[in-house]
Amino acid sequence: MTTALALFSGGLDSLLACRVIQAQDITVKALKFVSPFFDYDLLDRRQHYCADIKARYDIDVELIDISAEYLEMLAAPAHGYGKNFNPCVDCKILLVGKAKELMAAYGADFLITGEVIGQRPMSQRSDTLRIIERDSGTDEILLRPLCSRSLKPTLAEKKGLIDPARLPHFSGRNRTPQIELATSMGITDFPSPAGGCILTEPLRAARIRALYQMDRPELRTPDNIRFLLQGRQFQLPSGAWLAVGRKESENSKLERLQKEQDLIIKSANRPGPSGLLRFSTGRDDQRLAAAIVAAYLKKNSAPLQQMCLLDHLGRQETIAVAALGKEESQTLSW
């Protein structure tokens, strides 16, 4: 039985790549790589996610945590960054290269991705696709079934494992052909196009760049990256970090990110934002962080706000602080 190993993002293109290969009686094993920058939360519901993809699309998928390799690559990507801190080409090289390493374990004959030539300006140009093959060591074993008819034949095609005439012929940024193909396959609940990589977003990319510019590799951990991607961010004079939720969903995420030495900070007597304080050096940091969180309480005209500090065991302490002015708070933002 011929087996293909797929890079599965969960988006429409990777879904279609899997299905058009399955249509040629080839077994497809899908790998969904996760890191703090994409889909890390799925690790908390791994079994449910994999079962859902199988039930909805008949695709067997496995989650692979590539955080350590990704964070190391991000420090110095060989092909540089995009407009912000996005290492698009090196990201793809890393993922494809990792999939190649796993081919033997899955008994795979070749790799597939959902890439479409011309769809993305940095990582899906024809010259860039060749660079990805070369630097990942996947020349001739990486098949891009949605646009393979525009590319040189791979070994799977040369050996007759794949009939290229039965594959679609997509190119460019127009999504209509993919949507039409999905509909013809009876797939109507496909995901909406992704909004883009977090590292292409100016604000959050700037935070991650600042972290790497600190030249403190020990801080480049998945937990710290996830912290920096949530809510309003502040760096206190001592070097302590504070994140403040802007909405209920961010409050919940911050509370789930609490580690042993962290403190959750929130109003003791009314709804409002949650803050997460990390790397606190003592009481001064706690009081300043509480004053910043208090600044984002609605109707905070009282001279003192009662703020609750909760440790990772749920033990709490209430302190009274004057809310810091928002303008003063913003001088500490990053």
Secondary-structure map:
Layout: E1 3-7, H1 12-22, E2 27-34, H2 46-57, E3 60-65, H3 67-75, H4 88-106, E4 110-112, H5 126-136, E5 142-143, H6 155-158, H7 176-184, H8 202-213, H9 222-228, E6 232-235, E7 241-244, H10 248-256, E8 263-267, E9 275-278, H11 283-295, E10 305-310, E11 316-321, H12 326-330
Parallel strand pairs: 1-2, 1-4, 2-3, 4-5
Antiparallel strand pairs: 6-7, 7-9, 8-9, 8-10, 10-11
CATH class division of the largest domain:
Alpha Beta
* Total DSSP E strands: 11
CATH architecture of the largest domain: 3-Layer(aba) Sandwich
CATH superfamily of the largest domain: HUPs
Q: What would you note in describing this structure?
A:
The chain is α/β, with parallel strands linked by helices and 334 residues long. The chain folds into two domains: 3-184, Rossmann fold; 231-330, no CATH class. Helix content is 36%, strand content 16%. It is built from twelve helices and eleven strands. The strands form two sheets. It has a six-stranded antiparallel β-sheet with strand order 6-7-9-8-10-11, sandwiched between helices. Strands 3-2-1-4-5 form a five-stranded parallel β-sheet, sandwiched between helices. Helix 1 links the parallel strand 1 and strand 2 (27-34). Helix 4 packs across helix 5. The protein starts with a strand and ends with a helix. 38% of the residues are buried.
